[in-house]
């Protein structure tokens, strides 16, 4: 286990020396997003074989193509509007958007004619990779900064999607003590980062847990992602009509905050190894937490969204067309070995054990669309 220090150690330590202990959310924000030094804001490949973790997008293009099938169905449910805007938040290098656009260009020419794509990404330097990835669709490509997205200046009608965005947002951490609910702060002692419990930094934390009726057990630690409902508020403000598709790993609140998860869900990833200590390799390892989908659904309703569908990724993929994708890919496979490799790869997206099928969930919310006929609603085998 390496304990290598990075320039972020000094920056965060100086911040603590100046202003006193900081919340875990501020610590995590620095580790992930400090300009030029954070995990997502510094150069280097993060996702895929050469990075630190895989996402469904890097497993196989069929993932994006199935989402595209569902998006085409959304367009039909909205009575085929002439202009339809796709927005991806947390677009990374643009791979998912590219798989979706390729499918729509190929299979849905009527829709593609009026399609535009807007990418929202915290790290602006990824724009050149996105431009290159999406070169075939450059005439319909635009960008919106997260600040403009949050300001309410940007509005659209169509579909906003994200894959593994919410799990990458900084979280507060709390612990239930004999003196009630306390927040976990980060401070420095003898040159090392240490945690200490204190009063909640904001009343929003208690309000968050009240909204989902969660009361932690004595000794239980948990994360509270205040950025998730804030992001959804921005997304729902931006959406005049259409859908929001959120794909990520997580659970409904009752399952996420169960006393069985005594230490919460915070995990770090470094070169495909799981690490539990967030105070190592600051800015070089990813820090993530599981998503509380109950909050997204409850807040969505408060913001005027309709919850259309929520379920495991495998259910979504199977009912929205992954079998058709496998069959089509197999037809173009050159050998039996290639066919087998294809099946095994795609299985990763669906399988519960060791795959991404069960922990990963899909939430579809909408505004202003009456009883949409979504493919995922047909059920498996439908
Ligand atoms: C875990 S990565 C996922 C990347 C890609 N969606 C995938 O599945 O491979 C999360 C991405 O979200 C970006 N991000 C974080 N906060 C964001 C925000 N508020 N708005 C837009 N992008 C954000 C990060 O910079 C990072 O590229």
What is the gist of this entry?
By secondary structure, this protein is an alpha/beta fold.
Q: Any overview of this molecule?
A:
The protein has 382 residues and is an alpha/beta fold. It has a domain at 56-170 and 232-378: Rossmann fold, CATH 3.40.50.12710. The chain has helices spanning 7-19, 24-33, 56-59, 62-77, 95-107, 109-113, 127-133, 146-151, 203-211, 227-238, 253-256, 293-302, 313-320, 322-331, 336-350; strands at 22-23, 84-89, 115-120, 141-143, 156-163, 172-177, 180-189, 192-198, 221-224, 239-251, 267-270, 273-275, 286-288, 291-292, 306-312, 360-367. The strands form three sheets. Strands 2, 3, 4, 5, 10, 14, 15 and 16 form an eight-stranded mixed β-sheet that branches. Strands 1, 6, 7, 8 and 9 form a five-stranded antiparallel β-sheet that branches. Strands 12-11-13 form a three-stranded antiparallel β-sheet. A hairpin with a 2-residue loop joins strand 7 (180-189) and strand 8. Helix 4 crosses helix 5 (95-107) and helix 10 (227-238) packs across helix 12 (293-302). The longest helix is centred in the N-terminal third of the chain and has 16 residues, at 62-77. It is globular. The termini are far apart. The mean pLDDT is 93. The structure holds S-adenosylmethionine (SAM).
